[in-house]
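Q: I'm building a small set of examples for a reading group on sequence design. Run inverse folding on the following structure and report the sequence directly after it, with nothing in between.
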């Protein structure tokens, strides 16, 4: 036990000696030519630098417009090509729809012919109604009334004549046979008059009303038939128009300019992009057309930095594909709820941020990688060192302070920063000089 304690004490003494030697060596390690910078007070423009990707502000997914059908793709615009409004993006096979259009045309013609025939029947029924009321029916009544008047007049004359024969028969001027013949003529005339009156009565009270009622009923049936056929014709016409419109819509055109991007085929394994020959339904996207005229940046900031930013702040965006051309942008949206950026026991929580880019002549594409510098405000009269003066020593922020006799490593507490300067909250004083290079790395 005593030996073990001695060994521990000896090891501790050796470690202290090594540390003291390293400090002595480090203090003497500063090269006269090593770059240094003064710790100073001044304003700090706070800039948050985050990575992100480009996203179009609007992107339209084009699909098959024909519900309930599976159609074959016969043409696709080349992926990656730029199209203008009205350019053809895709075509779908219309052979089945064309056959359906032919059937719709035939059905429409038959319905129109039925409608025309029903209209003719309706007109004939109107003529029958008119004839029963004012034509042949009315003429028959007039004829019967005239015949009744004539037969009644004839009977009246014969009655008067027969009455005048009675005195002549009494005086013997005429024979009984002549008187009987006159009586027979009178009786016949009166019977004819009675029959004419009966015929007139039947014609006025029964025959003509029945004919009129029959004609009106026939007209009503024709009108109902016509009313039934009109919607049928309209439905056939509308169906024909819908099928024709469906055929036209199978040529899918861009509604706005953009970049052609194919969608994944959701119904094949392994997953691949759609291609000519695939059969698709409206649930399968064909082409996505992002509008490249207005691009946004999707990025995020740490939970600890979210209080630095707000909508309306200016940004600078550096696209990896165009590193020499910074783009202006405006922060437009900050997420309301933080989300975990990675898995693990203590995942970093970040707020989603959207930056709207100013119009640019660069050929920007969706999902291009970018770096975003967000002007998050300014701190006044703070202690500053260049960003290159802070190093990580055993995981602790450290500055190397230059003295006349050497270099002193000093732990510091860093605050806000930008791409040039870092705020020092504790560990340094104004006027001290710090190295801009790691003395360990230079040895």
């Amino acid at each position: 036990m005593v030996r073990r304690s001695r060994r521990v004490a000896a090891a501790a003494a050796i470690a202290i000696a090594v540390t003291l030697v390293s400090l002595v060596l480090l203090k003497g390690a500063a090269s006269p030519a090593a770059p240094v910078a003064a710790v100073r007070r001044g304003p700090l423009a706070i800039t948050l630098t985050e990575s992100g990707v480009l996203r179009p502000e609007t992107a339209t997914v084009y699909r098959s417009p024909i519900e309930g059908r599976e159609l074959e793709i016969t043409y696709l615009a080349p992926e990656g090509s730029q199209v203008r409004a009205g350019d053809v993006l895709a075509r779908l096979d219309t052979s089945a729809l064309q056959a359906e259009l032919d059937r719709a045309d035939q059905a429409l013609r038959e319905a129109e012919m039925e409608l025309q025939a029903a209209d003719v029947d309706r007109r004939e029924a109107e003529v029958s109604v008119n004839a029963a009321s004012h034509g042949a029916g009315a003429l028959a009544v007039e004829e019967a009334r005239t015949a009744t008047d004539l037969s009644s007049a004839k009977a009246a004359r014969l009655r008067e004549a027969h009455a005048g024969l009675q005195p002549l028969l009494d005086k013997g001027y005429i024979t009984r046979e002549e008187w009987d013949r006159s009586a027979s003529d009178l009786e016949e005339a009166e019977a004819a008059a009675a029959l004419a009156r009966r015929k007139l009565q039947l014609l006025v009270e029964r025959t003509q009303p029945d004919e009129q009622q029959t004609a009106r009923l026939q007209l009503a049936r024709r009108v109902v038939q016509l009313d039934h056929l009109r919607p049928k014709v309209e439905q056939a016409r509308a169906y024909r128009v819908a099928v024709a419109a469906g055929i036209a819509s199978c040529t899918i055109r861009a509604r706005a300019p953009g970049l052609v991007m194919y969608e994944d085929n959701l119904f094949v394994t392994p997953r691949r992009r759609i291609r000519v020959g695939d059969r698709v339904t409206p649930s399968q996207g064909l082409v996505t057309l992002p509008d490249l005229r207005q691009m946004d940046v999707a990025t995020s900031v740490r939970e600890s930095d979210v209080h630095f930013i707000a909508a309306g702040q200016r940004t600078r965006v550096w696209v990896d594909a165009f590193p020499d051309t910074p783009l202006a942008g405006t922060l437009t949206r900050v997420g309301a709820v933080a989300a975990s950026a990675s898995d693990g026991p203590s995942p970093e929580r970040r707020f989603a941020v959207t930056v709207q880019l100013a119009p640019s002549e660069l050929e920007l594409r969706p999902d291009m990688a970018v770096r975003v510098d967000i002007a998050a405000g300014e701190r006044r009269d703070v202690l500053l060192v260049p960003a290159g003066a802070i190093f990580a020593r055993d995981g602790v922020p450290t500055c190397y302070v230059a003295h006349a006799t050497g270099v002193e490593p000093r732990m510091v507490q860093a605050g806000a920063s930008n791409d040039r300067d870092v705020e020092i909250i504790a560990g340094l004083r104004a006027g001290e000089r710090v190295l801009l290079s790691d003395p360990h790395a230079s040895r």
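Residues 176-249 form the longest helix (74 residues).
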